[in-house]
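Title: Prediction job returns without error message
Component: structure pipeline
Severity: low
Priority: P3
Assignee: unassigned

Description:
Job completed but the reporter wants confirmation the result is attached to the right record. Sequence as submitted:
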Amino acid sequence: MTDKLTVSVLGTGIMGAAMARNLARAGHAVRAWNRSRDKAEPLAADGAHIADTPAEAVEGADVVLTILYDGPAALDVMRQAAPALRPGTAWVQSTTAGIEAIGELAGFARENGLVFFDAPVLGTRQPAEAGQLLVLAAGPSQGRDAVTPVFEAVGARTVWTGEDAAAGSATRLKLVANSWVVATNNAAGEVLALSKALGVDPQSFFDAIAGGPLDMGYLRAKAGLILEGRLTPAAFAVSTAAKDARLIVEAAERYGVRLDIAAAGAERLARAAAQGHADEDMAAAYFASFDEGREP
């Protein structure tokens, strides 16, 4: 197979748009679709064909890449695309869908003769735009040559986790990683909220931990967004983080594990979204510490 592919990108939000753009820049023919067409339109300047329907988008595709809100959304969109899907087409499923949904998506792939790859990505807006995502992938080794050029265009590295995409090993690793991301984000917000309540200059805290084992670049980055009021555009939106946190808790419960911090974090993110911060960066969970979602 030639390294230049026709790639259908279904979902052009924060991550999908950046991935589609990098695929086009790598020389692949990109056919893009989004439920809100206006989010896909800017990709035309990069040479992408903007489709009106999922079925139109997947016509002639060598690889279909889905990066949508959740598992049910991915399944719904692929069902819309089904009449135009060709048996043998590679399906790279990069939505953070959860363990249960991966099984349903794999079932759809089997029914339609697709070669299924479970391939969520780690990273936010900036690494996505730079083509520096970490791709976590599971799928048959005999079909990997077909999707490797896609992974190389969107990511800096690919970590293969297994042969059977239906087992969801890549999704499981993504949930574990995101549990740390969500917990750290929420902790950063609570540190700043407590500092404000106690009259402590946040810089005093950062000075105290500087260079030690408690210091962390991610903590400083998320705190900076809050302190400097740079919560838009979102690198990882509150609403999406709340969804991922919920999937993490559900996955743990499925295997008899109680995650108290993750459950509280999911509730915290949901509260911030309800307070009007859904489309802001997930660091805006900070505001969930205050009544009515704003600082006193």
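Comment from assignee: result matches the submitted record. The two ends are 60 Å apart (CA to CA).
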